[in-house]
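Whiteboard transcription, Tuesday session. T.W. wrote the structure tokens on the left side:
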């Protein structure tokens, strides 16, 4: 059924970073709209946007930030934030390029997020702690008791209420936290296997999560109701919401699969080989993707440094 879907997005252009493994790719929702990539050698690249939701052939700036693989790359209106297997985080002003370094984790930092409004950064990872920082690199609080019993894979601010955050873990649980009191206020049991990834809709009301066996749960946080359960037959490596439509897309072994949240049906599939080493050659593995600011393009990054743009049919 999925293979019979009429493609909405078609390949428009591509470029590549030579001798690079792209680990994360994000497209800024703030002006000036720009594309960022992160690589396994610990660097970040900035690509020029010509206001037509495309990108330059070469990065216009590069930032040497970490000594190891970058696990996460997020942005705010004034900064971008990275975390790495070198146990650190870096907060960077793109114009100056000067990083603020955050030290304290004792193992790989797997996920991070920033609330510029509340001047706070949150991070988590293999050491099973949740750390809250100010924007100057100072540790404000550490949650290390009763967080999760196993590795924490993802942490996000809930956009509706930035005093709350959400985490998922290999202990099969999703938890919602109050940052002011530093306590867990809700625990969701949506999965029977380790929860590897989660993503929130732009307004923060819809949660999409995936476990290690490819079971995807779509959950309404406001009504506390499960909207859909999908079986995508592989672990999701990344989940992104279309900023312009009520759609969520998932990067799987075989490609990017898009689910329409209102109609509750699959509407698009971009076959881009996914990222399963046992299925395809490592140099073709797509590791990351994102929507452009207005949802008319999807960008992908891969282990061989290739960046591709897929444009929606008009």
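and on the right, the sequence the group agreed on:
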């Amino acid at each position: 059924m999925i293979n019979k879907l009429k493609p909405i997005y078609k390949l428009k252009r591509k470029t590549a970073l030579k001798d690079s493994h792209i680990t994360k790719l994000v497209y800024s929702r703030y002006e000036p709209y720009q594309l960022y990539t992160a690589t396994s050698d610990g660097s970040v690249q900035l690509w020029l946007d010509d206001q037509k939701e495309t990108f330059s052939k070469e990065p216009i700036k590069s930032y040497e930030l970490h000594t190891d693989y970058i696990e996460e790359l997020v942005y705010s209106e004034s900064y971008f934030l990275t975390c790495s297997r070198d146990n650190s985080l870096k907060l960077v002003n793109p114009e100056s390029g000067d990083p603020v370094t955050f030290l304290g984790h004792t193992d790989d930092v797997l996920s991070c997020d920033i609330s510029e409004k509340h001047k706070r950064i949150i991070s988590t990872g293999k050491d099973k702690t949740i750390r809250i920082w100010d924007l100057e690199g100072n540790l404000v609080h550490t949650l290390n008791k009763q967080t999760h019993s196993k590795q924490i894979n993802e942490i996000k601010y809930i956009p509706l209420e930035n005093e709350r955050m959400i985490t998922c873990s290999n202990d099969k649980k999703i938890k919602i936290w109050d940052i002011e009191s530093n306590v867990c206020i809700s625990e969701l049991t949506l999965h029977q296997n380790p929860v590897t990834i989660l993503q929130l809709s732009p307004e923060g009301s819809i949660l999409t999560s995936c476990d290690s066996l490819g079971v995807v749960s779509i959950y309404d946080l406001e009504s506390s109701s499960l909207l859909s359960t999908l079986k995508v037959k592989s672990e999701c490596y990344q989940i992104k919401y279309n900023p312009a439509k009520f759609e969520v897309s998932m990067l799987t072994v075989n490609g990017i699969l898009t689910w329409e949240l209102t109609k509750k049906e699959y509407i698009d599939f971009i076959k881009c080989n996914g990222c399963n080493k046992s299925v395809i050659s490592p140099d073709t593995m797509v590791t990351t993707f994102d929507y452009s600011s207005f949802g008319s393009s999807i960008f992908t990054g891969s282990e061989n440094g290739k960046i591709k743009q897929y444009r929606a049919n008009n």
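Someone added at the bottom: Residues 277-282 have pLDDT under 50 and may be disordered.
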